[in-house]
Every structure is written in C-alpha cells, then in structure tokens.
Design goal:
Strand order of the largest sheet of chain A: 2-1-3-4-8
Structural class of chain B: alpha+beta
Largest sheet of chain A: 5 strands, mixed
Number of domains of chain A: 3
CATH topology of the largest domain in chain A: Rossmann fold
Radius of gyration of chain A: 27 Å
CATH architecture of the largest domain in chain B: 3-Layer(aba) Sandwich
Strand order of the largest sheet of chain B: 15-14-20-11-12-19-16-17
Number of helices of chain B: 26
Structural class of chain A: alpha/beta
Largest sheet of chain B: 8 strands, antiparallel
Oligomer: heterodimer
Mean pLDDT of chain B: 84
Distance between the termini of chain A: 58 Å
Number of helices of chain A: 18
Number of strands of chain A: 24
Helix content of chain B: 25-40%
Helix content of chain A: 25-40%
Largest interface: A-B, 61 and 69 residues
CATH class of the largest domain in chain A: Alpha Beta
CATH class of the largest domain in chain B: Alpha Beta
Strand content of chain A: 15-25%
Strand content of chain B: 15-25%
Number of domains of chain B: 5
Low-confidence stretches of chain A: 173-210, 400-406, 425-433
CATH architecture of the largest domain in chain A: 3-Layer(aba) Sandwich
Number of strands of chain B: 36
Distance between the termini of chain B: 87 Å
CATH superfamily of the largest domain in chain A: Diphthamide synthesis DPH1/DPH2 domain 3
Radius of gyration of chain B: 30 Å
Chain lengths: 508, 843
C-alpha cells in the first residue's frame, strides 16, 4: 500500500500545523521501527525546519500506550503514535494516533457477515481492530448493498462500532472521571459518567454507560451504543482482526456474548473462543489465590495512562482495608527475574492499560492480577459473577465509597480448602481494650517462635516484608569475633561468566 | 412417649462418673444402626415393638434408601440401673441414673472419616461383629483407629438370630465360631496395645463380650446367665461366669463340671448347656407355635408376657418373647456402664493424646481431671447440617469446663498457632443443644464429659476446632484428628448456568463443612474440585451439594480425575547445569530417587523439617544408609515445606552458598509442586546441589537470578534421571463365596489389579481376597464386580500406596506418555512437554 497513505502523512501534518507544535515525538512500535526514517523524512519535508521531530522506540511499558515519559525527555509538545494502540487517555500530552491500514477483502468480509446474519437470529455488532477502521465506510456500504440485493430486511440488524477518534487530549484533571475526547471532526463529546456512583450498574454493563438514548459502550478506542431495552448479550459480536490483546480484551469483557472472529489475513471465520474462556477461568483462580495473600506488590505498569496515580492510591487503600500489606514497585515491564527479586510478595497487582493488563505465565513466582481482580479479591464480601473489567478507569468509577457489607462470616479459601482468618483492618483491633494493649504486646514479646521459619517463607505466612526477611536463613554476614587475624588472600576467578579462565583450563 | 425430659438429662450431665460416651463401630452391614435402635428403644423414644425396623440413627433419606449409614449420628440415652445389678460395680458412681451419649457411625470405608470424628469425642466403643462373617477389613480399621485414640472397646457378637434361624448350627459349632470371632478381634487389639490403656482384649467370661440379635432386639452377656444360675448352683456369680465360657463342661447326668469333654453324650460345654441351648429351645418353641410348652418355660425363667402379646404367633411372638427375656438394651447398656470408662476415668489417660500443649498446664490438668470448674476445653469434631438450610450445628465434646448459651468462646482452627492471631476468632455461642432422638433440646449449659451441639459458630469453623474461654489466651488447641483414608478421587464441578457461580461457591463452602473428609479446592486452571475418599463418598457429596447446598441449581460434574505424582527411576545420567538470566550464576544439580520407605517416613512425619538434626541423621543413617554428615545437609523438604522430596547440599567449599540457600529453596518449593512432566507434585526425589558458581556482587546473585534458575536446574535434573509417573493404588478387600472367585479374578485382571492374598475364612464358605487396584481403574469397579459375581462380592477400597508406572512418560506412544498428554490437555498446558534444552544450559 502507498506509504504516504498508510502513514497518513498529510493528516499528521495538518494536525501538527493546527496545534502549532514545534517539538514532536514520533512513537513507533518495534515492528514499524524500520519505517521510521522514511516517515520522519516525509514529515520534515512537509513541515519544514521549524518543527523538531524525535523518533521514540522501545517503550518502557507496552508499545500500545503513549510513552509520555519518553516524550517529556525531549520536551515534546505532542506525540504521534504509530501502529496498534490501546487508546488509553493520556495525562499530560496530546497525542495523535496513526493506526496504519491493514489490507482486508471487503467483499469476502461482507459475504461472511451476511452468512452470519442468516444463521443467527441475533442482531450483529461489528467490532474491529483499529488498523481496519479505514475500511469501515466501504464495508458498511458493501454490506448494505448485499442486503438490499438479497431482498432481506436485515438491514437494521447490523450495527457498527465507531472509532472514538484518532486524537486524544490529556484529561484536564486526572482525578476526575471526565475524559475529554476530541473526535476527528472537532466536535466534543463530554463523556461524563451519568451513572457514576452506581457501582452495580457500571459493573453490570462492563464499559457501558447509560445515556438518554441507550447504553453507550467504549472499549479499546471503539464506541457504540445500543438501545436501552437491549442487552449486549442479545448481540452477536463480529470481530474483524487478528487474535491479539485487543480481541482478548473484547472476549473477556463480554464473556457472556457469542463472539465470532473474522481473520482478515486468512479470510475465514473462527468461532472458537475457548482459549479466551480458559483465560477467564484461570483469572478466577488467580483471584482466589490473591485472597490468601498477605503481602501485595503493586506494579506500576504505566506512567502515561490518565488516572494511574489515583488507581494506585485506590489499590493501596483497598489492600490496607483488607488488612494486607502493600508495596509499590516500579520496574518497567515485569519479567520473572525481576519479580523473583521480591519473593515476599504473594501476589502482584499490575496497574496498566487495558490491553497489557493480562500477564500470566508459569514463569512468574507469584500471580499477577489486574486492579479489577484485586477489587474482587480484597473487597470484603464481593463475589465474582462473571463480568470482567480490564480498564481501570471503569473501576475507578465503580468502586467509589466501598460498600461495607456486614458479613461476619470468615472467608473460605478454595486454595487451602478451609476457612481462613483475614486480618481485621487495624481500626477494629486497636479500639478494643486499650488498657490491656501494653500487657498484650509484652506477652507476645516473650512468646517462643515455635513456627519453623521455612513455613513463614514459603506458605505466605509472613505479614510484612520485614517478617519475611526475619525468617530467612541467611541474615547477612556474621561478624567474627574470634580469629581476628586477617586471613590470607585467595586468588579469585578471572575471565568471563560464560566460562572463567580456570574452567577453560580444566576443559582442555 | 418420652420417658425423660431435658431437665432430667441435664441433671445427670453434672455427674461425670455416671456418663458414658461411646460410639458403635463395625464393618459395613454388621448391624450397627439396627442394634443402636434397640438401645434407643430402651430410652423410650421409639416403641419397643418397632425396634429393629426403624433405624433411628439413619436420619437421611438416602441412608434409609440404601440401607447404609452415611453420617454418624449422636443420641443421648438415659438409663437407670437397679441397685441389685450395680452391687458388683466397683467404680465411682453417684446414684443409679446413667447418661449414655451414643454415636452410631457408618461402616463403609468411604465414610471412615465419620468414624474418626465419632471416636474423638467418645471414650468407649461398642464393636459390632457379625457372628457369621466374623472380623472383616473395616472391623480391623476401626479397631485400630479406636485404640489409636485410646478408646476402650467392648465387643458384641451380632446377628445371633442367623445361627438359630438361618444356619441352625448346633451348640458346639456355634461356640467355635464365636470363639474364633472373639479371638480374631483380640489379635487385632493386642497388636495395637497401649500401656496406659491397659489390657484392651475382650473376654466373654469377664462380661466384655455380648451376644446380640439387633434385628430382634435381644442380647445377653454371660453376666445375665451367670446371675440366673449362680443362685441355682449356689456358687459365686464370678465363678459361674468363668464356667460359662471356655473349656468347662457340664454333664447333667453326673451333675459335675469338668475341664475336658468326658465323651458322654450328655456332657456339654457350659456355654452350650446353659446359654445356647435354652435360647434355642425358646426360639424353636416360639417359631413352632408350641404355646402350651412355651408358657411354663417362660414362667420358669421369670418372664411374664402381657396378655395381648400372648396372641402373637411365629416370628413376632419369638421377637417379643426374646425381647422380654433378654432385652438388648439392658444387656448392652449394662455392659457399657460396667466396662467402658466414664469421662472422668478416660480423660485421665487420654489427655496425652488430646492436648497439644504442655501436659502440666492448667488446661491439661483440667482435661485430666474432667474439671467442670476449670477452663473450657471443647473439641468440635464435626458440623451437622441444621434444619434451616445452610446453617450448621457445631458438634463436639466438652473436655473440661462448661459451655453455655451466650458464652464468648475463642475458636482455634486447625492452623492456629499459640501466640499468634492466625485462624482464631472470638465469638459467642448462640445456643447449646443436646440431641434426644430425632429432636434437639436447648439447654442452658453443658458441663465437661458430654457431647454438645452449638448454634452460631458455623461461620467460623470449617470442619473442626478447639473452643475455649475468651480470656484463655495461652491455651493450646486439642490435637487434630488423623484420618485413615485420604481424598484421592477428585471431580471438577462447574455450574450449568454461569451466573450460578456464587451459588456453587456457597454450596462448596457448605459441603466442605458438612463432611469431615471432603476437600473443596480450586485448580490452577480455575476449575472447582471436589475430592473424596471413594466413588460412593463423592456420589453422596455431590448429591448433597446439588440438592441441599445449592438449592437444586444444576451442576456439571467431570469424570473422576486422579492425581499422579512424578518421580525418578535412577540417578541423573549427568550433572545438569542451568545459568541465571544474567548468565553470571550457575547451578549444577543431580536428581536421584529416594531410598525405599523414606518418602513414606516423611509422609508419616517421622522425618520432617522440624526434627532435631541429630535425631534425623540417626534415622537416616540407621534406616536408610545415609552418610551421617550428609544427613545434616538437608536444605529443605517440599512441596509445602513438608513434602516427600528434598534438596541436599553436596557442594564443597563454595563461597556465598548460604546466601542463595533461601532462593534455591524457594525455587524448589515451586518446582516440586509442579513437576516438569505433567505439573503434578513430585514424590520421592532427592535433589543434590553439586556445585554452584556465583557472581561476586551480591546484587547479581539475588532471588531474581537464583529462584528461576533453581527451578530450571531442578527440572533439568528431573528429566535426566528417567522421570516416571506414580499412580495411586487402592488396597481392595473382597469377601465372596467360592463360586464368585472366578468372576472376581476376571474383573481384577481386566482392571489391572492383582491379587496378593486369598484366604478362606475358617469355618465359612467365604473367601477373603486382598488385591491392589489402580485408583484410575477403580471407577465403576464395584458395579462391574457385582455384575460379574451376581452381587455376591462386596469390595472395600482404601488408598494404600503410590505405584510406579513402568512405561516412560517421555516416550509419546507409551501408556504413561498418553496419560501425560491427557493430564496436560486437561490442565490447559501445551501438549508437548517442555524439552530438556529449555532447562539445561551449556557452558
């Protein structure tokens, strides 16, 4: 496809000129990095020398998010993001998205939509990867045409989702729930949450918001609304695109819906979402496991998504409320070696954009869960009923004032198969019998630590990092008081780690 | 028609010497519940006439339908002794009124956890043995359990009616059978003898053996007859008792006792002459309706019948006559009162078995003395579903102190560690309840020595717990029960409608509570798992789950799943090496199978992480041939820090080694839980750390570098040591007549089972067959067996050991290979095993 068109050079130039930006960061994902010189060159020739362009790559977190920190290193005034995007709102910089244009056989796709229509009695909702958004108008036309040709009255039964826009302006105030999104034609939709504080409703509708004319959904840069007397379960979701994180996001969020995927490259329909459903079950297990955790690590997985600070704060409060200890860790993209440096954490909560939120691998020592799952696990008396939220913005709204349900029952742990005591949040314990507090603490001071340290370390019994460290068998170097005379020196190894000099000798 | 009230009962509860807590235990179908009924009849709750038909303690519908007991049920009985019968009683007592807390337990091996729970809260056991079938597998199991808990047994030889009506054996033959039954039981009891409990063997001549016919509601001990004849012969009762058993013969012609049969036809064994024959005569007279002969005979025995009873004929008449002459309740209850210990007596020696803490603290002393004024020590042994759905009674035994309505108690769960707040709640008892037959009566308080049910604690107790007073912060809990069966059969359950998930979760919670053995967990894949001791157990559990605990919501149950273990056959073929992610650290490891019996020793807790290193190295060097120094170098056990695998340090002179120990241990805990082959637990593998190369900077050899590396090295070591799968194997005991043997062998062969013992029961046409049967093949085994033997064979399966599958799981087509790919598929793993090259690095 035409390079110029694919990278939307002219639209980018218009946008940059309109905004009067002089320092612009161009963010490329790894797979498009090879094109970056040509893009930069083309832009420069259009914009002239007055605008400085910086090419950014290798983002510290997911490449789908706008790397605001990287951009502010070069004092950029705006970011142009290329390739697959999660469309998470930004917190400081305006961003423009160039999705690229993936090729698609529109005729074939339209035929298959028609085919689906004839085989189901549900209306169809068409969702797609953003890289296919360029073909939407064409597709609509072809589908409508073929429906007219076949003299059917199914016309209104196909709904299409729209792209929110390809420009995001930073939220004015990250802590409010209002994001302003400016769509292409310049009209402003103020996407305030009308049912903001109603926890149940929001959870029930996933990302849906109730508007006057129906329920409005927003997911991964797509938006659509359905009449208020319909439920999303009534629709057959038709996804155009590859099986990537955006698709997983859709499947998990609408896990009650029937979903069909059209693979544009292979030109066929795939109805099997069992893999994603298995993911859901697995997440359920992780939630159960998290309930047993005493120490929780909060992994900061984004420094760009609007509101990440407030969700971290919310997580901290939640964890504290559940009587657990939390530590906040910033480590870039997590891998098993990094996480294993914190063996005291029984579970990690990964705060990141919706499409990088799911991290699950056998290699990790402790499970990694999303903020939504954390809310399920640590919120008292909350139970999972099937809905799923990946985007933490929805969570921020949903759990406003924590509903303190008056269940006095002990928590049943399915991991251990029995009742587990949860440590009561501190205020409960402290208030009682202040007069005896001193006596109680001194009483404990003389208690013999009968528990074997091993069990503290490996059964998640430690309450805090210091307790965990106290149980380690290695406590640091012992100072030796006898035998103070310096020991004679030994010659250490030399050479490289792949084979030290003395090892090479031995082999020979 | 209740003869006594809750108030009366409550009064006796204070008389700790007049209480007997006892359980009825036996092999399945030997007549426990029926016999219990005739005892309950004496307490006046059910009419004497229907005793034997109702099965008072089988309260569940499915119990009644299947004719087996599933849950153990407690009943409090009130019994008043006559002064005369008590005159020989030497023990302490206050008055003649006795309270008997009786627990009927199931006999099927799948439910033996219920027996364990029953035994914990009782002091004595009535062992019921079928006089024809004799001592069976489950009899032995429950006896062993009972003696392990220091429960004193008495025996009753049951189903006597079969001797008279069905088999019609003559006196001498019957005597031989009874003698053999008692001997067999005594052999078992002698094996598990306990010094503190003293001689626990039973002797008819001492009155610790009864002969009963539960179905007909009569029973006797030699005491009954001795009393009768003592006057007649003018000898001492005790002397008479001795003559009525063993090698004592009487010849009515010469009126002389001898210790050998004189050979004269009139010379008969005392037992036959004076006990067996009279009963036989009465029964046959009744059955033949020779009423003209019957009445004088009864008159001679001092038995008076009511006039309306005189019109009965045949079996009904016989039943009535026998019940009047030799009422089961008085014989059995008197035997219990005489020979089973009161709580005051039993707790004196049981305290060591019960209390975890120091045996000289106030709690131990309170238990020892059964002190109602002492601190409360109460053990909840099981949860009983209450009539309002979803709630449970906490059922247990007060060992010291008093529990009362409204009392604030400390609930110490099974994971409670003194001094910590873990698994500890302080709650108040809403109501204290005692069982009187089918109904419950609230009482103000219950003192020590009694069983009690409590309302309002169910949300804090899963299965069992120790309760004490709110302020008793330094009390240790009562020791957890040890079960003889383990939950090896597992199924995955899910709800048909996804939105029913909360119901399922709630249901599983309640199920876990309602049964002492069932385990409800969740798999890594997110599936809910219900694990039980056997097929029948699971079936009952799932039925309860769906119908009672989930309100009938539909569930989907998977095929039974068996968990396997991973082990190794040989020592690793080479020392494997794995590098840390930064390539600066290297671990060299080897795996080898543990010595035979070592894994079992770890399972039993003979060797474990908390041992004194010296004691441990002594066992290891003496029993398993370990080097003494090496035994001190065990780093850890796993999985879960106590499992039957270990890491041993074989390094010599390595710097910083102790610094990475914790990281290696963490990696090992992780890896031993999910082996490289099919992510099943490892078993009986010893990993040796042969050498390590570490970076000189501490930051580069931290947990992040070592933990994943240790895991990889362990996997590599496992894969190079010829990994094998271990499958769980049942010990099956089958009892069947000779003609069914062919069918049994056929079915066993087909199911990969093998017979290792076949024995004819002396004096019967029955054979006892012992065989090993892989658990995975056991599903549907009972029904296949029944079909193949036209219902004559009845198997009992108990998990016995892990057996190595000989085929190589790494070989794709092999049996083990097939299993591995099935397991991996079920767990949602990649079907291909991760190759060794992923775990092992080259220099």
């Amino acid at each position: 496809m035409d390079f110029e068109l694919n990278y939307e050079i002219s639209r980018t130039v218009d946008y940059l000129r309109a905004g009067n930006f002089t320092r612009v960061a161009l963010q490329f994902p790894d797979e498009l990095l090879k094109d970056s010189p040509r893009v930069a060159k083309a832009l420069r020739s259009e914009l002239g020398a007055g605008v400085r362009l910086f090419v950014m790559a290798d983002a510290a977190y997911g490449s789908c998010c706008v790397d605001e920190i990287g951009a502010s290193h070069v004092d950029a005034e705006c970011v142009v993001h290329y390739g697959h995007a999660c469309m998470s709102p930004t917190s400081t910089l305006p961003a423009m998205f160039v999705f690229g244009k993936a090729s698609i056989d529109i005729k074939d796709c339209a035929d298959l939509i028609g085919h689906c229509l004839s085989s189901t009695n549900k209306p169809i909702l068409v969702l797609y990867g953003l890289e296919y958004s360029h073909a939407l108008m064409h597709l609509k036309a072809v589908v409508a045409e073929s429906l007219v040709l076949s003299h059917s009255n199914w016309g209104p039964m196909v709904k299409y989702s729209d792209v929110i826009g390809s420009v995001i302006n930073p939220s004015q105030d990250c802590t409010t729930e209002k994001d302003q999104i400016r769509s292409l034609n310049g009209s402003i939709t103020n996407a305030g949450f009308t049912s903001g504080r109603d926890e149940k409703k929001i959870l029930k509708f996933g990302n849906g918001r109730r508007m006057e004319n129906g329920t409005c959904f927003e997911l991964g840069g797509l938006t659509w609304s359905i009449p208020s007397d319909h439920k999303i379960e009534d629709y057959l979701l038709f996804w155009i695109g590859p099986e990537n994180s955006a698709f997983t996001n859709v499947v998990l969020t609408f896990n009650n819906c029937e979903i069909i995927r059209y693979d544009a490259d292979e030109r066929r329909l795939l109805e099997d979402t069992s893999c994603q459903r298995r993911i859901l079950k697995r997440r359920y297990y992780l939630v159960e496991k998290a309930k047993d955790a005493n120490i929780v690590g909060i992994l900061v997985g984004t420094l760009g998504c609007a509101g990440y600070l407030s969700i971290i704060q919310q997580m901290k409060e939640l964890i504290k409320g559940a009587g657990k200890k939390s530590y906040t860790l910033v480590m870039g993209r997590p891998n098993s070696a990094k996480l294993a440096n914190f063996p005291e954490c029984d579970v990690f909560v990964y705060v990141s954009c919706a499409q990088t939120a799911l991290l699950d691998s056998k290699e990790f020592l402790a499970p990694i869960i999303t903020p939504f799952e954390a809310a399920l696990a640590f919120g008292r008396g909350r139970q999972w009923t099937g809905e799923y939220v990946l985007n933490f913005h929805d969570l921020m709204v949903s759990s406003g004032p924590e509903a303190v349900s008056g269940t006095k029952e002990a928590r049943f742990s399915f991991i251990k198969g029995g009742y587990m005591e949860d440590i009561q949040p501190e205020e409960n314990g402290e208030h009682e019998e202040r007069s005896l507090a001193l006596a109680e603490t001194t009483e404990k001071a003389l208690n013999l630590q009968s528990q074997h340290p091993n069990t503290i370390m490996f059964k998640g019994a430690a309450r805090s990092g210091s307790e965990f460290f106290a149980a380690r068998s290695y406590q640091g170097l012992n100072r030796q008081y006898e035998n103070l005379a310096p020991q004679s020196y030994v010659i250490g190894r030399s050479g490289r780690a792949s084979g030290y000099a003395d090892e090479k000798m031995q082999e020979k | 028609m209740v003869k006594f009230t809750a108030e009366e009962l409550r009064k006796i509860m204070d008389l700790k010497h007049n209480i007997r807590n006892m359980s009825v235990i036996a092999h399945v179908d030997h007549g426990k519940s029926t016999l219990t009924d005739s005892l309950v009849a004496a307490a006046g709750i059910i009419a004497q006439e229907v005793a034997g038909d109702v099965r008072m303690t089988d309260t569940r519908q499915d119990e009644a339908e299947r004719g087996i007991t599933i849950k153990s049920t407690g009943i409090s009985l009130y019994y008043e002794m006559t002064d005369e019968s008590l005159k020989n009683y030497k023990g302490e007592r206050v008055g003649n009124e006795y309270l008997i807390n009786l627990i009927d337990s199931p006999g099927h091996v799948d439910f033996s956890s219920e027996v364990t729970a029953a035994l914990r809260i009782t002091d004595g056991a009535l062992v019921v043995v079928d006089c024809v079938e004799g001592v069976c597998v489950q009899t032995e199991t429950v006896l062993r359990q009972a003696l392990g808990e220091r429960i004193r047994p008495v025996l009753t030889v049951n189903k006597m009616d079969r001797c008279f009506l069905e088999l019609q054996v003559d006196g001498e033959e019957a005597y031989q059978t009874f003698q053999r039954v008692i001997e067999n039981a005594n052999v078992i009891m002698a094996t598990y003898e306990d010094v503190l409990l003293g001689d626990v063997q039973v002797y008819p001549e001492k009155g610790t053996v009864a002969f009963s016919a539960g179905l007909h509601g009569w029973a006797f001990t030699l005491t009954n007859f001795a009393k009768m004849y003592a006057a007649k012969f003018g000898v001492d009762e005790a002397k008479m008792m001795e003559r009525l058993w063993g090698e004592n013969y009487f010849d009515p012609a010469t009126k002389k006792w001898t210790t050998k049969s004189t050979g004269s036809p009139t010379c008969k064994r005392g037992f036959v002459q004076f006990c067996y024959e009279p009963i036989r005569q009465i029964i046959s007279t009744c059955m033949n309706d020779q009423k003209d002969k019957l009445w004088p005979m009864l008159q001679k025995l001092g038995v008076t019948m009511k006039s309306d009873e005189k019109d009965l004929i045949g079996k009904a008449l016989m039943k009535r006559v026998m019940q009047t002459w030799l009422p089961a309740s008085s014989a059995l209850l008197e035997m219990m009162i005489f020979h089973l210990p009161s709580p005051a007596k039993a707790q004196r020696y049981r305290v060591e078995n019960l209390y975890e803490g120091p045996l000289d603290d106030i709690y131990a002393n309170a238990i020892r003395n059964c002190d109602p004024e002492g601190p409360l020590m109460l053990y909840v042994s099981k949860m009983i579903p209450a009539s309002d759905k979803g709630r449970f009674f906490a059922f247990g035994r007060v060992f010291s102190g008093k529990v009362s309505t409204g009392l604030k108690v400390r609930i110490m769960g099974p994971n409670y560690v003194p001094g910590q707040k873990k698994d500890l709640y302080v709650k108040s008892v809403q109501r204290t309840v005692i069982w009187m037959g089918k109904k419950q009566e609230s009482v103000e308080d219950v003192p020590c020595g009694n069983t009690v049910a409590m309302v309002g604690l169910d949300q804090f107790i899963t299965k069992n717990a120790t309760l004490t007073n709110e302020k008793e912060t330094d009390a240790h809990p009562i020791r957890a029960m040890k079960f003889s069966v383990s939950p090896v059969v597992r199924v995955a359950v899910q709800c048909k409608v996804a939105s029913d998930l909360p119901k399922l979760v709630e249901g599983l919670k309640r199920l876990a509570k309602s049964d002492p053995m069932v385990v409800c967990t969740i798999e890594e894949s997110g599936e809910h798992i219900v694990a039980g001791a056997g097929e029948l157990h699971l079936e009952i559990c799932l039925k309860d789950l769906q119908e009672d605990f989930m309100g009938g919501a539909e569930i989907i149950v998977s095929d039974p799943v068996v968990s396997f273990r991973e082990t190794v056959l040989e020592k690793s073929c080479r020392t494997v090496m794995s590098k840390s992610p930064n390539k600066h650290n290297r671990l060299y490891m080897e795996a080898r199978p543990m010595e035979e019996g070592l894994a079992e020793a770890i399972d039993d807790g003979r060797i474990g992480p908390r041992d004194d290193p010296k004691a441990r190295s002594k066992i290891l060097s003496e029993e398993f041939g370990w080097d003494k120094d090496l035994a001190k170098k065990i780093w850890c056990f796993g999985p879960e820090t106590t499992g039957p695998n270990m890491v041993v340090d074989m390094c010599k002179g390595v710097q910083y080694l102790n610094e990475i120990k914790d990281s290696v241990v963490a990696g090992f805990q992780w890896a031993s839980k999910e082996g490289a082959v099919a992510e099943e637990n490892m078993r009986a593998i010893c990993f040796e750390v042969c050498d390590v190369v570490l970076h000189a900077d501490a930051i580069h050899r931290g947990g992040g570098q070592i933990i994943p590396t240790a895991r990889r090295a362990i996997y590599a070591a496992q894969l190079t040591a010829k990994p094998r799968l271990l499958e769980p194997v049942y010990l099956v005991e089958i009892q069947a007549p000779e003609q069914a043997l062919g069918g049994i062998y056929g079915v066993l062969n087909q199911k990969r089972g093998h017979v290792f013992e076949e024995m004819q029961r002396p004096g019967t046409p029955l054979y006892n067959i012992k065989a090993y049967l892989p658990v995975i093949e056991s599903f549907g085994f009972s029904s296949t067996l029944r079909a193949a033997t036209s219902g004559q064979a009845f198997p009992q399966c108990v998990f016995d050991h892990w057996d190595m599958m000989s085929s190589d799981p790494l070989e794709p087509g092999s049996q083990a290979g097939q299993l591995v790919s099935d397991i991996r598929k079920r767990k949602g793993l990649k079907e291909q095993m991760t190759p060794l090259s992923e775990f092992e690095d080259k220099l």
